[in-house]
Specification:
Distance between the termini: 87 Å
Largest sheet: 6 strands, mixed
Number of helices: 10
Structural class: alpha/beta
Helix content: 40-55%
Number of strands: 6
Length: 251
């Protein structure tokens, strides 16, 4: 039979006596002789200490994540109702990131997001992100673009394009009816699309890089495909990059 270490027996008796006296584990640890403290800590306190430290680390990690959120994209492009497919959106993202000298992806890069299905949850997603200032550019076909412009989601390009862009894009800038936000006592009144016509969109027809990347027709209107429009979103935090993106699409 294996003999017990006399020191262990002494420690056990001493710890037991202290416990019987109503001492807490920390008080017992402090009261034990120096040579007995490590074994008592290992047996009685190590698991609890490690668990507490792990919990504290998790709390600190979550606090840091809330205090320092992940960087937002430097350019967020919302593509509405499958105007281009996922593979084309990926190619557009890669090309734009290279041209704008930015990384790809959500963290401080270029993100071209083609999942905004207005018949499902795409409109709610778009509204939420616009409200948070996360979207910079909106791309849609004529009908969807007119709808979104009517909701007041686009900027007036007279004030958000550069002077050089106004000159270069003079033949492509297009007016759409905006949102009428007049005060009214009528609870049924809906101002969508009842506002003044303003230059909210740029027709992408004839834009070389857009045509090369997407395979879009050079025709302004055809029986089976109308033009695609691009607009700058309200509350964008990356207006300069959005302007540069339009220049990139021109080629």
């Amino acid at each position: 039979m294996t003999s017990r270490d006399p020191a262990d027996s002494t420690r056990a008796r001493t710890a037991a006596e202290l416990a019987d006296a109503g001492r807490s584990r920390l008080a017992i640890l402090r009261a034990l002789p120096a040579g007995q403290r490590w074994s008592y800590f290992r047996d009685q306190l190590m698991v609890r200490t490690l668990t507490a430290l792990a919990g504290l680390a998790a709390v600190i990690f979550l606090a840091v994540q809330f205090a320092l959120p992940s960087p937002k994209p430097a350019l967020y492009v919302a593509v509405i109702n499958g105007t281009i497919d996922t593979a084309t959106a990926s190619a557009l993202q890669t090309g734009a990131a290279t041209a704008l000298n930015l990384p790809e992806g959500r963290e401080s890069g270029v993100l071209v997001d083609d999942y905004f299905d207005l018949d499902k949850d795409g409109l709610a997603k778009l509204q939420t992100m616009l409200g948070n200032g996360e979207i910079d550019v909106i791309i849609a076909d004529r009908d969807d673009f007119a709808t979104l412009a009517g909701y007041g989601y686009m900027t007036d390009l007279d004030g958000t394009l550069t002077a050089n862009q106004h000159t270069a894009l003079a033949g492509s800038i297009t007016e759409f009816a905006g949102f009428d936000d007049r005060d009214t006592d009528d609870p049924e009144y809906n101002g969508s699309g009842r506002g003044a016509a303003e230059p909210f969109g740029v027709n992408l027809t004839g834009f070389d890089r857009w045509r090369h990347t997407t395979g879009a027709s050079t025709e302004t209107d055809t029986a089976d495909a109308g033009p695609t429009y691009i607009g700058l979103a309200q509350e964008s935090a990356n207006r300069a990059n959005a302007q540069r993106f339009i220049d990139y699409l021109r080629g």
